[in-house]
Amino acid sequence: MKKILSSIISFYFATAVNAQRTDVYMPDTFENEKSNQAFSHFTHNCDSKAELADSVINFIYNSENGEFYPVEVRKYTYDLRNNLTEIHLISLPDRTNILRQVFEYDAFNNITSYTNYLWINSNWEKNLIVRKTYSSENKILTEVFYNRDAEGNFTPYMRHFCNYDGNRIVNYLRQIKNSEGQWYNFSYHYYIYDNYGRLSVLYGQYINGPVFWERTSVYDDFTNRLSQRYLRQLKFNPEIKQNVLTNITFEVYSYNIYGDVSDILYHGWSDNRWEVNGKAVFYYSLLKNKKVSICHNGNTLCVDAHAVKAHLEHGDKLGPCVQNNESMTTNKPANSDNSRLPSTFTLYPNPAKNYVTVKFNEDPSLFEYGMILSKDGKTIVSFNIDCRNEINLNIGNLREGTYIIKIIGSEKTETQLMIKK
């Protein structure tokens, strides 16, 4: 139970740092991503946001009686510009303070720093500072992390350098300071987007080493919203005596009528299967004196936030109408992979030099063929499954770098990253 609680705390608390901005690509640490749509910064008098999150209650699941028990609540505070200024984490049911995060902004509503405070001996003690710098286009350039040294002073111990393709972040370099006070390159973290510009895979790779974590996002066909997300970490598999990316967490997202996350159901990987171990429930308040865009009979209207629910219940769509007189939320991409579940196959060794093995974790007859793709999605090699439980692929002629293995069936598809060394 303590392990589950720790997992929920670390994920949700770190997620909230970046979740509130949608107009800036923010670099992701292991747990840290602008993930759900619980928060948004407002730059127009009339946009598609009708509410702000007040709080989130996290629950753990008791498999013996099938009930969820609240273990913590996160409360949010905003400034007059609706920027998130503080997150306050409190344990339940005793309502003891756990953690605070306090945010500061520049004139362009960019987060310039945030500070973590821990509740220790009935006092708030500062334990982490993160400072960010931006380009003239308001794109994050650096993140520097500070903690206390032996003398109690805050000194930098880790930093990120972000790289972009246009306005979209493609990777960041993580550097760490060693015991002699020298910076060294530790890892790169890469962002892979689908054909619709949505972040589909985020992974970290040691410098000149293997991928050590990978998070994949799946989107709903109709709404384009994040529907599932799963995380894998590099762990030793005694069955094949190899370090392989192993399932850790699996999340299922649900949304309310306003298009905001209503709850997230957590699963953990145990005994070779996913088991429910917790959930988070979001609570919101409608924005006061806020106008929201609605697509009504092919015309974009600007209505009061309190009137949005009635419009949506009568068939109107949230957001402005697009050129084909449909709401933005009706633009659905084809061939989405949201029907798949993680861990269809295991890939080893990874990194690989001459050969890599695809080992299926379920009935291989469910799949028809596979492909090796470049990072930009171009097909390099295709191969048939032919009901084989294991397939050995010759990759000796490939250049060193990162590739995608894609396994395709009539009802599901899965992709995994492969490193050619």
Please describe the structure with a list of short key phrases separated by commas or semicolons:
421 residues, mainly beta, Lipocalin, Immunoglobulin-like, 16-stranded antiparallel β-barrel, four-stranded mixed beta sheet, 27 strands, 6% helix, 55% strand, globular, disordered N terminus
Explain briefly what this protein structure is.
With 421 residues, the protein is mainly beta. It is 6% helix and 55% strand. It folds into 2 domains: 2-292, Lipocalin (Beta Barrel); 345-420, Sandwich (Immunoglobulin-like).
H/E topology pattern: HEEEEEEEEEEEEEEEEEEEHEEEEEEEE
Strand order of the largest sheet: 2-3-4-5-6-7-8-9-10-11-12-13-14-15-16-17
Content-based structural category? mainly beta
Number of helices: 2
Biggest beta sheet attributes: 16 strands, antiparallel, barrel
Helix content: under 10%
Low-confidence stretches: 1-44, 324-342
CATH class of the largest domain: Mainly Beta
Q: Beta fraction of the residues?
A: over 45%
Q: Shape, please?
A: globular
Number of strands: 27
Descriptive notes:
With 421 residues, this protein is mainly beta. It has 2 domains: 291 residues, Beta Barrel (Lipocalin); 76 residues, Sandwich (Immunoglobulin-like). Helices cover 6% and strands 55% of the residues. The strands form 4 sheets. The chain has a 16-stranded antiparallel β-barrel. Strands 1, 18, 19 and 20 form a 4-stranded mixed beta sheet that branches. It has a 4-stranded antiparallel beta sheet with strand order 24-23-26-27, with no helix packed on it. A hairpin with a 5-residue loop joins strand 11 and strand 12.
